[in-house]
Every structure is written in C-alpha cells, then in structure tokens.
Amino acid sequence: MLNLRYVWGQNSISFNSLYIHDQKQDFTEFFGKGDNEEEGDKEFSRRQQVNDNHLFVNQILTNLKINERLGANLSAGFNYIIGNEPDRRINNFLFRNNVMTFSTNSPGENERFFSDMKEKGFVAKGILTYKLDDSQELERKIDFGYNGNFVTRNFYNTVFNHRLIGTMPSSIDIENVDQYFNQANLGSLFELETQNGRTDRALDEFYYTGKKNIHSGLAAATYQFNQDFTAVLGLRFDNIYQDVVYYFNLSSTATDGPSTIKKNYFLPSLNLKYVLNDKMILRASGSKSYVLPQFIELARMQYAGINQTIEGNPKLVPAQVYNADLKWELYPTSSELISAGVFYKTIENPISRVYSTGAGNLMTFINTGSNATVLGAEVEIKKELLRHSNAYGDNVLAAGANVSYLFSKQKLEDPTPQFTNTEDQLEGASPWIVNADISYKANFSNFELMPTLVFNYFSDRIYTLGSRGFQNLMEKGVPTLDFNMSSTIKRKFGINLKVENILNPDREYYREFQDQANPLLIESYKRGVDFSLGLSYKFNNKLIYN
After folding, report:
1. Other CB atoms within 10 A of residue 295 CB
2. Predicted local distance difference test score (pLDDT) of residue 234
3. Would you state the torsion angle of the CA atoms of residues 417, 419, 422, 423, taken in this order, to the nearest 10 degrees?
4. pLDDT of residue 540
5. 253: phi > 0 → left, psi -120 to 50 → alpha, else beta; which?
C-alpha cells in the first residue's frame, strides 16, 4: 500500500495505491446418497480447488479551492483484477458392497478445470462545489459534476473430462488417484476430452466478455435553513451501456442473440435532518436506485459448484428500487448511540435465483415478476462500558448491538420456472439479522492494542425459490463469531490477527414441504475456522508547502 499527499495553500493532491493478493485453498469430501444405480449404492466425492486472486487499486484525488465560494474535487482511478482457478480437480467414486470403485455415469465424473479472469476498471469524477453565501455557520451549497465508470472483463475456461476406456481394478485406492490418471495410462485406461467432445474444436475455450460503460451527471443542493434543519436534494442521471458476449458448448451469443442493456435512469434523492436537541437527531430520506445484473448472471455459461451448477440468463433486465427511511438517533455521549428506524422499499423486476427447467441440478437467475415489497425496522445501540485514563491515553471497553427485522414479499409471475407459489419472500432476505460486538482499546507506552469480538446471526432464508411442485430450498440461519486483534508499535509497525468462524456451525440447506412435514436435509457441512496474521509498516513522512 502506498499513500502520497501534497498540500499547497488550501489545495491538495493525493495518490493511493493498493495491492491485495488473496488465495483460498479448499479441500472438500462428501459421502452419501447420489445417483444410485442399485439399491444401497452410495457416492464419495472429492473436490480440490484453489482460487488465486489479485487486486490492484490506484487513485488520484484532488481538492482545489478556486476562490472563496467555488471549489473542485477531481479524481481518477484504475483497478485491475486477476482471478484464476488453476487445475480444480473433481473425482466421484461409487461405493457398492463395501468396495470403492470409479463412477462410470459420464466422463465428467472425473474432471480438471482451468479458468482465468481479467478485469480492468476506469473511474473518473469531477465535482464543482459552489457556496450560496459566505456564512460560516450554515451549510448552503450546490454540487454538480460528472462520474464515469468503465469496466471490461474477459473470462476463459477449459474442462478436461476423463473417459474410462480400459478395465479398471475392482477396488481402487482413493488416496492415490494419480496411479490411475497419469501419462502412462492415457490411451489405455482413460482418454481426455473437453466439453466440446473430441471434435476439431475440442481445445476451444469457453468464454464470456463483459463491457460496461456508465456516464453519470450529478447535481445536489444542500441547504441548512437554520442550526437545526438541513435538507439535501439530489438528482443523478445515468446513461448505461452493458454488453455480454459468451460461448459455451450448449449456447452462445451467436445462437441466443445479444445480451445488451441500454438504459437511461433519472435518480432523485432527498435527505432531511432535524436536530431535536443537543443529543437527539431525526433523519428522513427517500431515493430511487437500480440493480444492474452482473456479467456472470447474464452469460449463459455453466459453473459447477459443489452440489449445484449455476448458469446465467442473458434476458435479465435491471431492477428498479424506490427507498424510504425514517430514523431517530440519541447520543448520550459523543461515543455512544441509541437509534431506531423503519424503512420501506419497492422493487420493480426483482432478480432471484431459481431452478432451471432443464435436466440436472441446474440453477439460473430470472426477473421473477413485476414487483416486490420490503418493510423493516432496525434498532442499534453503542455503549461505553468502562473508560480509564492513564498517561498514554484512554483505555475504553465498548460494546454495540444491532437488530433488524425485515418483511418481504414478491410476486412470482414469470411462467418459465413454473413456480410452486404465486408469491413469496425475496431470495436471500433473512427476516431477522443480529450483529453485536465488544472491544477493548488499550494504550501503553509506544504500544496500542485493540481486541474485538464480533457476533453475527441471520435467520433462515430462501436460497432458491421453489418450482415445479417443489417448495423452497432454504438456507438455515447460523450464528458466527469472529475475533480480531489489531496493535500498533511505536505508531510504525502494525500487527493484525484474525480468527473467523470460531463457532464453526453446521451450514445446512433443506427443502420445505407444503403439508408441514419435517423438512428434507439436502446438504450439511462445516466451513472451518480461518486464521490470518498481517504485518504492516507505516511511513509517516509529511511534506507541506505554503
């Protein structure tokens, strides 16, 4: 990470650069009922996967004061993302009569998957701010300008399937699969083929390319009528062009037609703030926004997960969202908060995950119907439990909690998935969400320490909407507990320790039934506990020129 800042007079220019490398290695094994050929058959599945991701972020930010009333904020950024999944391996075995053998359902029972994704993003923003008067006590100004967001993505993947052609042993060693799938046995025990088969196009990669250009005109008026009442009226105009081109062995842009979104959106917003007294504030807001389908949700390419396969839908359209919020805030002290709020949303053309009508455990995305409604309430508390001062600063024990309730309902009108119900909750929307944390900030000589314990809980929520007579596939709510400890030594060296998912609860997915019968458990697993340790060093040189 690099941060540079140059200041002259009341102007400044900054450059920020950040590089993050994140690698996740996953080794998963499943054993249970599968596609049984005979009574008593069971399936053992092993998945070995590495996701290697790189993120580069670069920003230039300027803050200019042109005169006493006019100022400007100009910024530009370039982001570069690399996402690789090199050599994912999946092997499926048949367990019959207490003997483990290779599954022979299809060549895809044993596969090696290679993918590569590169994304470039450019952003540019220019905002002029004009003060309506010279008052130093009241904020009255107009902001107007431009924002541009330009993204290109290229994704390629190849899958090598193993077709068994020779006589395999009646019993195999699943801990040494390489003794069967190796160069010496290629052509005698197995053959390699891609999902393009053994044709002239066998090595042609599957791909999708995405392009997104968003030009935005921005305007906002901030007017503080008096010390207590402030209003901010905003208007944003977005011109959107998004296009996805894809090729897969079962579908392509050439056969399905283009997946292009061309839209113009006028997005008004209004924020009101009223200070009831020196400790209480009342806030109200209303706005219009939209949800743009992601590239991967549009490209009709199949990605094989652990227990399901997902493909995009090139016919998706953006969802429009109308928002309204009302919130009351009480500040007993400058570091404490008690708040309560209610919110409302109406969504046009909501997007949800559903089962495809094709064969197999295939999921896709659709605009479920004309509209959805969301109502909710939220309560939040931040409280200091203990404060003690010493020669090096304040030592503070603090805690916080947030509880929200959400009611959602959407119309299920699209006939394609053959929905079981005519209306239902929004996919992924938990009725109850609870967050809580407790932390202790301690100051010592040349040393600062802050351990934090964070608890989260979400209640059962829809994972996939029910269709063709089946009820919803539900994700069971789980509690999670994370620990984070950050420390600074001589304000230069930083140490950060994270332990995530300490409780390691069972992650379960189950199928509901109409007659209130016990739900059917579809999948159960433990995610595991994550440990990470980070070190940093801060260069604190500062150059100011007047």
Report:
1. 24
2. 96
3. -90
4. 57
5. alpha
One-letter amino acid for residue 539 of the chain: F
C-alpha neighbours within 13 Å on the C-beta side of residue 221:
6
Give strand pairing partners of 479.
457
Helix (H) or strand (E) holding 254: helix 253-256
Q: CB–CB of 281/273 below 8 Å?
A: yes
Grouping H, G, I as helix, E, B as strand and the rest as coil, residue 33 is: coil
Structure tokens at 338: 């008690």
Supply the pLDDT for residue 323. Answer: 97
Distance separating alpha carbons of residues 425 and 372, to the nearest angstrom: 9
- Pair 361, 307: CB distance under 8 Å: yes
Classify 228 as helix, strand or coil. coil
Q: Which portions of the chain are predicted below pLDDT 50?
A: 543-546
Q: What is the pLDDT of residue 360?
A: 63
DSSP letter (8 states) at residue 467:
B
Q: Are 182 and 162 in contact (CB under 8 A)?
A: no
Q: 418: alpha, beta or left, given left = phi > 0 and alpha = psi -120 to 50?
A: left
Helix (H, G, I), strand (E, B) or coil at 476: coil
Query: For residues 272 and 286, what is the distance between their CA atoms, to the nearest angstrom?
Result: 9
Return d(Cα 163, Cα 201) in angstroms, integer. Answer: 18
18's enclosing H/E stretch is strand 11-32
- Cβ(403)–Cβ(430) below 8 Å: no
Q: In angstroms, what CA-CA distances link 240 with 214, 317, 329, 346? A: 5, 12, 37, 22
Report whether 467 contacts 361 (CB < 8 A).
Answer: no
Are the C-beta atoms of 502 and 484 separated by less than 8 Å? no
Residues 6+ apart with CB under 8 A from 503: 479, 480, 481
**Dist CA 289 CA 318 (whole Å):** 10
Cα dihedral: 187, 189, 192, 197 (round 10): 100
> Which tokens sit at 230?
């402030």
CA atoms of 215 and 146, how far apart (whole Å): 8
CA 31 to CA 508: how far, in whole Å?
A: 15
CB 329 within 8 A of CB 281: yes
DSSP 103-156: --S-GGGEEEEEEEEEEEEEEEEEEEEEESS--SSS-EEEEEEEEEEEEEEEEE
Tokens 């119907």 locate to 369
Q: What number of residues does the chain have?
A: 546
Q: Give pTM, 2 decimals.
A: 0.86
HEC-encoded secondary structure of 428-480: CCCCEEEEEEEEEEEEECCEEEEEEEEEEEECCEEEEECECCCCCEEECCEEE
Phi, psi of 318 (to 5 degrees): -65, 150
Q: Which residues contact 338 (CB under 8 A, 6 or more apart)?
A: 329, 330, 332, 380, 381, 382
Q: Distance between CA 288 and CA 266 in Å, rounded?
A: 8
H/E element holding 266? Answer: strand 259-275
**Confidence (pLDDT) at 250:** 83
Alpha-carbon distances of 152 from 158, 260, 354, rounded to whole Å? 21, 14, 27
For residues 251 and 298, the answer to whether their CB atoms sit within 8 Å is: no
Residue 444 in tokens: 């010592």
